[in-house]
Design a protein that fits this description.
The protein is mainly alpha-helical. The chain has helices spanning 2-13, 22-30, 34-42, 54-57, 66-83, and strands at residues 59-60, 63-64.
């Protein structure tokens, strides 16, 4: 789940997905602080994520599809929020 968040941020950096503040997007979907997201992005544990081919990962017809990327991020964020987030007890 965290790998997908880091990959999303990487795709934004590469200009493949438009998002003015991807750290804010990820932190709100995953129910974590911005600092947590920044830690994930900088962590050597997730460095391999940057080697993924975005056109194979979240694609339609061999090209990255931003709609698919956002939908996956939203669903994985919700899973993370429900399973691991410090905010999980606040979900109604």
């Amino acid at each position: 789940l965290i790998e997908d968040a880091v990959f999303y941020r990487h795709c934004v950096e590469q200009g493949l997905i438009e998002d003015q503040d991807p750290v804010k997007t990820i932190s709100s979907l995953y129910g974590v602080s911005r600092r947590a997201v920044q830690t994930w992005v900088k962590s050597p544990d997730f460095e391999h994520v940057k080697d993924r081919n975005p056109h194979e990962q979240w694609s339609t017809a061999g090209r990255l599809d931003p709609v698919i990327a956002v939908n996956i991020l939203e669903s994985h964020g919700l899973m993370y929020l429900r399973l691991y987030s410090p905010m999980k007890d606040r979900i109604v």
